[in-house]
Amino acid sequence: MISIVKIMKTMILIVAYNAEKTIKQLLIRIPNDVWKTAKEIIVADDCSKDKTYQIALDYKKEYKRNNLRIVKHKVNKGYGGNQKWGYNYAIEKKYDVVVMIHGDAQYPPEFIPAMLDCIKKEKADFVFGSRMAGHPLKGGMPIYKFIGNKFLTALENLVLGTNLSEFHSGFRGYSVKALNEIPFNLNSDDFHFDSEIIIQLVIAKKKISEITIPTFYGKEKCHVNVIRYGLNILKILSQFLLNKYDLKKYEKFNIASHNSKA
């Protein structure tokens, strides 16, 4: 695995908000091979009100992780806004790959090497870790989230003509070149950013792959308003269809225009 990671200039982006109970454990669980070969591992603390930032700093000092960078935004950017910051940074620094994972330890950092391996071997533009391809209920996923995920994913597949097992994973790997070719900065700063960026990748005909990951639900606090989230997914799917059939144009889905300006 080390040889595969070495030939890609890799950045790991950990998006965190009020993650003081989980952030250290997440950092500890990142495989040594990833620590040795990733150019930067960034904890992007989205103006947390707890000790997330300090705990991450203490970890860096205790474990002497020179490639660990801890950033605390002065103003809360939102879940999507935090990712925008990270992806723009990856583009600016000319990374090859950026892997995004949540700081709440719900997703397994042990699978980062598998994700990087998939990106390299399959020449994928985007890889996500799918809980739904495994056994999410056995991992403690609440039944209402399981049903909601299944329903929204089925609808998104129907509208987009895709066959993905999940659209709502918080564990993702992107080719930075692909990110630079889609207008992700026009997406929402809220949680449905994750679906908007997949829609953009589909429109841009980018290669999407997935790996199966285990599900773990602990005592972490969920910051997603599930009703608002579901309605926002319906809204962006409606926008996609209106844009597709030229009934109303949305710049965020105009990939050709974005690339002509680049």
Helices, by number, come to 11
What is the general shape?
A: globular
Q: Give the overall average pLDDT.
A: 94
The major beta sheet can be summarized as: 7 strands, mixed
Strand order of the largest sheet: 3-2-1-4-6-5-7
Fraction of residues in H or I helices: 40-55%
Rounded to an integer in angstroms, the radius of gyration calculated over CA atoms is 18 Å
Instruction: Give the count of structural domains.
Output: 1
Count of β-strands: 7
H/E topology pattern = HEHHEHEHEHEHEHHEHH
Indicate the CATH topology: Spore Coat Polysaccharide Biosynthesis Protein SpsA, Chain A
- Overall structural class, as computed from helix and strand content, comes to alpha/beta
The CATH architecture: Alpha-Beta Complex
The stretches of 5 or more residues where confidence is low (pLDDT under 50) are none
The CATH homologous superfamily is named Spore Coat Polysaccharide Biosynthesis Protein SpsA, Chain A
